[in-house]
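Batch job 17 of 40 flagged for manual review because the log was empty.
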Amino acid sequence: MGSTTRERLDKIQAAVDRVAAVGLVQQAIQNAHLGGREIDLRAGQAVHFGSCSYLGLETDARLKQAACDAVERYGVIFSSSRSYVRLPLYDELEGLLREMVGGWPVVVAPSTSLAHQSALPILIGDRDAVCFDVLVHSSVQAVLPALAQRGIRCEVVPHNRIDVLERYAKELLERHERVFYLCDGVYSMRGDLAPLPELLDLLDRVPALHAYVDDAHGVGWAGRHGAGVVLGEHGLHPQMTVALSLSKGFGAGGGLLVLREPASAQRILACGGTLMFSGQLPPASLGAGIASARVHLSDELSQRQAALRTRIDLFDRLAAGVGISCTSASRSPIRFIEIGSLERTTEVARSLLAQGYYVNLAAYPAVSRGRAGIRLMLTCHHTLDDVIGLVQAIERAFRLEVAQTASA
């Protein structure tokens, strides 16, 4: 390992250690049972605004019972590669997921990250090139070195700049067969959305451009059947592949690939390294996934989506009223409040925890250097009073931080 890499890792480790020492990261919760709303930490009990379970399904009695039933029937794990034999729960789950996403071929993976690692090296050919949004999820960017090692050109695109993508794509297509654009549907740190109408228009105009969209954070709260901001609201474009998460808003576990062609799905399932050589999803996750898919296909989903929307709208209205500015004003459940330095952000997050509210502290490398902030997620677990209390706590935390900075 080179000295530059070692020094970078040492700095990241030192920052993590400082934040962990004050109880903000790498903490074990003390709850004997979880209801989804509160967590018990070393610093005390706090309302949990750090969860990505947007619909609150992970504690739903039906999902828990389905998980227990699956364990009773098939054991804690089924320790065999899916390449050889699989549990019948896969067929049931994938059938329901196909209905949920509009009937397209699907592949269930152990996680969304492992889905990327299986799909991208197979979808992208040696004569292709890649453009990727600078903020696309790190699990997507983790595949880029393997692509580059094959000689595939990879170009970074400024965030959500479809005009730059168009220019790059047309230039690359002079020397390459196809161009793949890698982006998120909902960006995990700031909660903003990809400019999908503009992207879909560009795909229509440039037939050799393809899009691979990680819509992990769009599942559940967005679109018909909770299929996300891409599939649930726009459908699957002929030049598009979509990756989803079954571990966030879906409330179960695993990842999902949605493809246009059955042959592509079969190729990824047969040849994808992380599908060939990784274990299967635990029976509990498969059972819970089946129960969650049934909720997503029912009329109940729109009620949960509406309840979450009420909480998002309330937060935005109250935050604007007291001058709290979020980086993104999108309709996603994710809010990011940029503060700047890690030190200032730590003080704000510590103040919120002392007031009984846990939020995510986000700093480099999760966000750019000098642009640290607090990330919070709104879920159906939260009461309206929780949302009101959080906004009031953020306002107090900022006043306290400003006063401390002025007196320093």
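Reviewer: the log was empty due to a logging misconfiguration, but the result itself is present. The chain has a mean pLDDT of 94. Unflagging and moving on to job 18.
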